[in-house]
Amino acid sequence: MRNIIYSLICEDDAQKIFIDGLIERYDNKNIEFTFNNIFYRTLFCRGNKEVKAKLPQAANYSFLHQKGFYCDIVFVGLDYDDRERSNFNNELEKIYEKVNIHARSKVIILFPVQAIEHWLILLKARLEKPSNTKNIAAEVEAINRSSAKTQLYPNRKQPKNQIIDPIIREGDFDWLASISVSFRAFHAKLNTFLNTQNG
Question: Could you tell me which of 9, 15, 25, 119 has the C-alpha nearest to residue 74?
Answer without folding.
Answer: 9
